Amino acid sequence: MSSTGNEAAPHFEPPGPGSWEQDPVHYPRPMTRYFQETQPPAFGAGTREFARFYGLLMDGLRTGYANGFGYNQVVSVPDAEIPARLERAARVFPEKLWREQLHAWDTQHKPASIARHRELQGVSPDTLSDLELAAYLKRCRDHHSDMITQHMRFTAGALLPTGDFLAQAGDWTGLPPSELLGLMRGSAAVSAGGSDELESLKRAFGRDPAAREALASEGDPAQLLARLRSFGGEAGAAVSGYLDLVGHRLIDGFDIAEPSALELPEALLKAIKRKGFRLPTPIQRKTMPLILQGMDVVGMARTGSGKTAAFVIPMVERCALFEKAAQCGCPTRLIANIGKGGQAWTVEALRTQLPYRLRPQAE
After folding, report:
1. How far apart are CA 2 and CA 162, in angstroms?
2. For residue 95, what are the contacts with CB-CB under 8 A and spacing of at least 6?
3. Please, are residues 283 and 276 in contact by the beta-carbon 8 Å criterion?
4. Which one of 1, 26, 295, 348 has the fewest CB atoms closer than 10 angstroms to its CB?
5. Is the distance from CB of 72 to CB of 61 less than 8 angstroms?
6. How far is residue 135's CA from residue 141's CA, in Å, rounded to a whole number?
7. 337 pLDDT exceeds 90?
8. Which residues does residue 65 pair with via DSSP β-bridges, in sequence order?
9. What is the DSSP string of 128-149?
10. What digits encode the pLDDT tens for the residues 100-109?
C-alpha cells in the first residue's frame, strides 16, 4: 500500500477541562473501547481510597482518553476535608499504617480474589446459552472493574514506605536515585512472583526426575506444557495448579486485548524454567559427582556455564554433612572485586538456592 501524502495528523482533544498528563507507561498505545469505558470509574475509586487512607492532599486520579491514549488528572481535595487529611497523614509513618493494608491483603483480599478468579476461570463459555453467556461476561467485567479498584487501593502501601526510604537514604548517603533503586529488587520470594502454587511445583519437580527431564526437553512449548499437565501424581497436579494461577495473567500491558501467559507458551515455559527446574549444565554434570566423592577436579568452561555452582554446591553439601567450614578462592573478577563482602554475597546467594543454613566462619 502506498501513501498519498494527504493523511491528516490525528487531532487530540483534551479528555475534559483542566490540565491532563499523558501516561505512556501504562497506556503506551491506544486502548480498546472496553477498557476506556471500564477503567476510569474503577481507577478513580481506587486512587481516591488510597488517597484518603494515607491522608494525601489529593482526592485520587481521574483518567480520560484522547484517540485511545490514556491521560491522568489529579483531583483536588475538598477544602472541608483538608484538616482530617493532615491529621491522618501525621499518623502514617509513626504508626506504619501500610502494615494494616499488608495484613488485610495477605489474609483477606488476596485469597478472596484468587478464589473469585478461579471460579470465573472454571466456567466453560461453550456450555452456556446466549443469555447465560451475556450474564457471565457481565460478571467477568464487574470482577475486572473490582480488581482495578483493588489494585489502586493497595498501590500506595507499596510506594509510600519505599519512596520514603529512597528519599531518606539519598539524604544520608548523597547517592543518586539510580543507584539506590538497586536496593528495591527485593529478596522475599513474593518479590520474584512466589506463591504457594510455585512452591508446590518446586517440590513436585524436585521429587520427579521424569518431570525435570520433560521440562528440559525441546519441542513445541504449548505441547510441552500440555504434556506436563498430563503427568500423573504430584507433578501434573502442581503444573495444573500453577498454570491455573498465572496462565490468564496479561504479559504485556493492561488491556484485555493483550496476550495472556497461556497465549505465549514459549514465554511461560521460559519463566517456569527460570524458577530453577532444569538439569545441571554440562560442566556441573561432569564435575559435581567427582567432587562429591572427594576427588580433586580441574574443569574448563565458558563464562556463564555454571562453573562456580559446580564446585560450591558440592562444597556446601559436604560442609553440611560433616559440619565443616571451607575456604575457597574464585578467580573471577566479579567475586574477586567483592572483597570482604564476598562472604555475605555468597552466603545470601546460596541461602536462596540450597536447603541448608550456612554459618559464616568467624573472622
Report:
1. 51
2. none
3. no
4. 1
5. yes
6. 10
7. no
8. 70
9. S-HHHHHHHHHHHHHHHHHHHH
10. 999 999 999 9
Residue with the bigger pLDDT between 84 and 185: it is 84
Report how far residue 63's alpha carbon sits from residue 57's, in angstroms, rounded to the nearest whole number. 18
Instruction: Give the model's pLDDT for residue 258.
Output: 87
> Per-residue DSSP letters for 251-298?
SSSSSTTSPBGGG-HHHHHHHHHHTT-SPPPHHHHHHHHHHHTT----
**Rounded CA separation 36/31 (Å):** 7
Model confidence, pTM: 0.69
Separation CA 165–CA 168 (nearest Å) = 5
pLDDT over 90 at 192, yes or no? no
Residue written as grid cell 481516591: 48
Contacts of 227 (CB under 8 A, 6+ apart): 214
Provide the angle, in degrees to the nearest 10, between the axes of the packed helices 233-246 and 196-207. Answer: 150
Per-residue b or e along 150-162, where b marks 16 or more CB atoms closer than 10 Å to that residue's CB: bebbbebbeebbe
Q: Give the number of residues written for the chain.
A: 363
pLDDT at 363 over 50: no
**Between vectors from CA 22 to CA 251 and to CA 24, what angle results, nearest 5°?**
30
DSSP-derived 3-state class of residue 15: coil
